[in-house]
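Pair request: fold both.
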Amino acid sequence: MLHSIQKFIKNISPFTPLIVAFDLGTHTTKIGLKGKGVILREPTCAAYRTQPVREYLFFGTDAKQIIGKTPEFLHIIKPLVNGIVSDFDTEVALIRYYIEKSVLPYVHSSFIKPPLHAITAVPSTSTEIEQKAVEEALLKAGCSSVSLIKKPLASASGAGFNVFFHKPHLVVDIGAGLIEMSIISGGGIVLYRSLKQAGDHMDKVIANYIHLKHGVLLGEASCEKLKIACLNFTNIEKTELVRGKSLENGLPKSIKIKSSELREALTPVFSLILDTVKELLEVAATEIVNDIYQEGILLTGKAALIPGFSAYMSEALKVEVLVSEHSPEATIYGLLKIADSPEHMKAAQINIA
């Protein structure tokens, strides 16, 4: 019924559809508008109260700022886990709010709104049911139609590669919920591997390390800030002061954490990333490996900005590792780039029942 109504509205609308790109990230939601660029960057987070009825009160930054500080009747939800929709209703409410905040101000008519055509990226490992959940969430949030693109294609395109040319590229995208490693050629994915030990998992590893070594409990936000401020793979030793709760007496306690401690804590995670890239190269055809060694490996995602990380990977893999210009936003830029070409969008689009 919903599809029929939306199709009817689309057919009678005198307006050309607005093409809106959605990067529905585990940590951050980004929205781009064709011809305008990126128009929103907000945390993928919402807060609702359970009494007397379920009602959403805060979204994005406002919701993230109160994590761990709320009464029992106020719940903070991150509706995406490992790049997959885990709370459908919250994701719909979040997308609807972000559309009203960022997209609708560009709509000049107050009487009849033009239909919105959404183009979004989904993990290469996502199942048909998971892809359908993303499509339904966007439709229910107010979009009239949806095009789904495999995320590695969007990320590589946003980094400047021509993904529709028959030249293999290896892209390692380290996000908050998922790490995707894909060999791309001719508009498709030749080989891929994925890991769930991404940014959010790293925060938990850091919290556990500090808990065991220093006897201090740190919150999720504190671990994320510590990782951003202190983690590096250079010779520079940074020190950051953090405050948590002492396990001895339950009182606040301040400790100093060094860059070397964070590297020690996260060594198993980064070793796993390197081993998985090596495995991908081992199973790839000889011709593909030869091209990758000539072109290098592309690193995208926020982790690509960790100082010295690309050099660390390059030394371990004996291959040049490149960092894309807009690494954390490669996916949204790639979606906008693909949206500029109807032929490319048709070629890259996932067809689901």
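--- second member of the pair ---
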Amino acid sequence: MTTHRPAHVWVDGRLLPAEGQHLSAFDRGFQLGDGIFETLRARGGRPTELPQHAARLRRSADGLAIALPDDVEARLGGAVAELLAAEGLDGPDGDASIRITVSRGAIMARGLLPHGVAVPPTIVVQAWPVVPPPRDHLERGLHLVASAIRRDPESPLVALKTTSRADYVYARIEARDAGADDALFLTIDGFLSEATTANVFLVRRGELATPAAGCAILPGTTRDWLLRWAAHVGLAPHEGWLTTRDLSDAEEAFLSSSVAGVLPVTSFAGAPIGDGRPGPWTQRARADREAFIDGRNAPP
């Protein structure tokens, strides 16, 4: 967790002091978690995969019937550029984590349904410098445990990136209390789903495997990139129904997310994965993804 204190925040078209008052107490994002969000990386002032994130934001908005502006991608591009410049993160060495949050907006009436009141959504963009992962995470790898929370593949909410994150907070607390770095969600039938903020990958017998979309996952933009990357570098990409035994028996494992990139996983439930050290495919995946974010190689 970064201790950097942003100086600015972008709210509904305006750059405001971060310490100011920004939202109404009646905003449904605050009241009900009635909102959606995206996180992405921006290096050297260049947002990574903004069109893909904007498209997923719109899919999440459609799922909750939140009306986004038709030109939301262009608005977000301008907001990110303005905010990065204000925070001094737009230079060649700038490396930022961007969060885009959208709520249904402020509605004075009570109740779950918005009562047909048409209000513009609240759109907020925030930026922080990217803090490199602890050296130990890259050299030793992450230790994971299974969360007690189970994911339902039949739920229509699993494919929406909503601001309702209580399950994820609870799971991360479980991991902390178990002395682990992160928690894995399993489906109600016991198949692998995802970690609290990342997709999970296994390397086994020349294959790069990851839980299928039907396993109650949120398909990440980095996940999509890695599946294309695998075919490019000689690993057979596979999306399927994987078990904790598959994870324990894998040669290598790693997590992927837009901001953290690729992070090695070297143990699960107290037992080592592979030889208990970050593997060569994991290290290559991380290096190639970072090079892509830098603009030093083309997408696979």
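Observation on the second member. The chain has two domains: 8-129, 135-294.
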